[in-house]
Structures are given as C-alpha cells and as structure tokens.
Write a structure and sequence with these properties.
binds glycinamide ribonucleotide, 6 helices, EC 2.1.2.2, alpha/beta, two-stranded antiparallel sheet, Formyl_transf_N, 9 strands, seven-stranded mixed β-sheet, globular, Phosphoribosylglycinamide formyltransferase
C-alpha cells in the first residue's frame, strides 16, 4: 500500500480519521509513521493506540530553524513515505524538507484558501464576517498555505458561531475531505500542472 507519514501538533482528529480509513485494505494507503513537533500532542497517543510508530522533533531542541528542519526531514525519511500529510501540523516546513518531499506533501487548512491562511484561519474568517468558510487541502510549497489547491469544501457560518463551534463544524467536513483526497492520491496519484491539481483515484 501507499505509505503515508502524518505530521501533527495537536488533537489529532484528522489523523484519527486517516487511521480509521487505513484499516480497510481497499483504501490503498497506510499510515506508517507519525511525527510531531510537540511531545505532548494528543495525536501521538492516537498513533500509539493504533500501533503506529511515532517520532518527536521539537524546535526548542535545536539551535536554529534550519537544523530543526533537517532533523524533521530525517525523521520523516526514516519511514520512506510516498506521501506526507500535514494534519494540524502548526509549523512551516523548510527548504531541506521541501527538497526531499516537495510535490508529495499535502496540508489541510480550516478555511477556503487563499482567504485566511496561517495559524488562525477560523478566527480570522469569523472576524472578517464571511458567511461561508470551509476547508482546503493544498500541496505544500514554500509559502504560507499558498500551494496549489487539491480540494475544497464550503461550510456555512452561523450567526452565533464562535471560533470553537465553527471550527468543530468545519472539522467534520475536513476529516471526510482529507480522507477522500489522500485515498485518491494513493490510488491514482497527484498531478500538479502549474496552479492546477488533477487527482487520480
Ligand atoms: C485542523 O482543523 C487543521 O485544518 C488545522 O488544525 C486542526 C487540527 O485538528 N490546521 C491549521 O490551522 C494549519 N494552519 P486535529 O489536530 O484534530 O486534526
């Protein structure tokens, strides 16, 4: 099966959805490793519970960002992934990482890019006052949530939403979209033609 390495920083609900999906051989992909920048991430417990090996590469343990990025790259490379999935990974990957895994790394983001990139997509969309937001899966490049868009889905904003309620509504859709997109990449490949992405599977 197509080998997935999942990068996480937080709760890991998107990882959990991938772990549910990979249990079915027909899915075509397996999570073979999980790497976090945060030793305390709950996502690591989900990986361990599923019997998936984990690694932690924490930025404060390194003298600078470039050496952290090289260590992260090595930690991911150990698992020999076909595709790397950033699922709530809250750091930007660097040049060493993109040299090795560029073009086959995707990220999920809780807004309709190119609107509201960055660490607070849900909060920023609410503050702007949009009535529709959603989620995006993108190919990771050297920008901030600026890579080619693989798939998106819209989610309505309710008048009484706060950041938490809107994020939860988005995450329900996001998990399904991410699982679907990653399965399609595994089964049929991912072709990037300039800004346009064509999915197989
Ligand atoms: C997800 O909504 C993901 O899109 C977001 O963090 C959440 C992680 O949830 N990522 C970003 O905002 C990246 N800029 P999870 O840990 O439960 O999967």
């Amino acid at each position: 099966a197509h080998r997935l390495v999942v990068l996480v920083s937080g709760a890991g609900s998107n990882l959990a959805a991938l772990l549910d999906a990979h249990a079915d051989p027909a899915y075509g992909a397996r999570v073979v490793g999980v790497v976090s920048d945060r030793p305390g991430a709950a996502a690591l417990d989900r990986a361990r519970a599923a019997g998936v090996p984990t690694a932690v590469v924490a930025l404060p343990d390194f003298p600078d960002r470039a050496s952290w990025d090289r260590a992260l790259t090595e930690a991911v490379a150990v698992f020999t992934p076909d595709t790397v999935v950033l699922a709530g990974f809250m750091k930007l990957v660097g040049a060493a990482f993109l040299d090795r895994f560029g073009g086959r790394t995707v990220n999920t983001h809780p807004a309709l890019l190119p609107a509201f990139p960055g660490a607070h997509g849900v909060r920023d969309a609410l503050a702007y006052g949009v009535k529709i937001s959603g989620c995006s899966v993108i190919v990771v490049d050297d920008g901030v949530d600026a890579g080619p868009i693989v798939a998106q889905e819209a989610v309505p904003v309710a008048d009484d939403d706060d950041e938490e309620t809107l994020h939860e509504r988005i995450k329900v859709v996001e998990r399904r979209l991410l699982v679907d997109v990653v399965g399609r990449i595994a089964r049929g490949g991912l072709r990037v033609e300039g800004r346009r992405v064509v999915l197989g599977g």
